[in-house]
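Q: Please design a sequence for this.
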């Protein structure tokens, strides 16, 4: 289907708006992808916080000019599609890698994360990394751990004193002082 200049300009404008806020993208190619598989792929990408588009290579290169993912969309050949996000790139890579494991019709070409172009192996490695939420949880644990230990040590002195007093009361060590005072 041939596109008129006006339609091409509209498509480039739409894609430019979407790509401006994107910080990472994964470019792939596919062959003989069914409608059901395409629907599942789009759903998977959407659930990971991203967007997915099948691209016309020249229009994508034009639309990506001046964006953070420009380097990945320049010089594409063959059938290309892009999954992009402004959120967690690890979540997107994990979702796509999981989907690709079950659907051999789709393969990765390259990716880009915060302006750095990554190859297929690095995309797969990105998918094995912990996500932002997991990293934040580990970081908070590491920050909080010394404070918890300090509170435990400070509470130990009071707790130990209470145990000693309780043992003294149980063994009636303090009863002699009361009898002498009476």
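A: Design:
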């Amino acid at each position: 289907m041939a596109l008129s200049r006006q339609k091409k300009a509209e498509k480039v404008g739409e894609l430019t708006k979407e790509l401006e806020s994107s910080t990472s993208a994964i470019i792939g190619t596919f062959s003989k992808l069914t409608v059901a598989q395409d629907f599942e792929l789009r759903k998977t990408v959407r659930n990971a916080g991203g967007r997915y588009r099948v691209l016309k290579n020249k229009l994508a290169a034009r639309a990506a000019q001046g964006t953070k993912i420009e380097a990945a969309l320049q010089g594409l050949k063959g059938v290309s599609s892009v999954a992009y996000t402004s959120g967690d790139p690890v979540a997107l890579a994990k979702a796509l890698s999981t989907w690709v494991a079950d659907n051999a019709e789709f393969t990765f070409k390259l990716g880009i994360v915060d302006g750095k172009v990554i190859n297929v192996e690095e995309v797969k490695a990105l998918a094995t990394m912990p996500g932002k939420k997991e990293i934040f949880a580990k970081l908070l644990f590491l920050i909080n751990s010394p404070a918890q230990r300090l509170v435990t040590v400070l509470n130990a002195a009071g707790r130990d004193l209470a145990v000693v007093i309780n043992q003294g009361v149980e063994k009636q060590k303090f009863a002699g002082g009361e009898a002498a005072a009476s």
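Q: Thanks. Anything notable?
A: The chain has a mean pLDDT of 84. The helical segments are 5-20, 35-47, 57-63, 89-102, 120-128, 132-170, 175-181.
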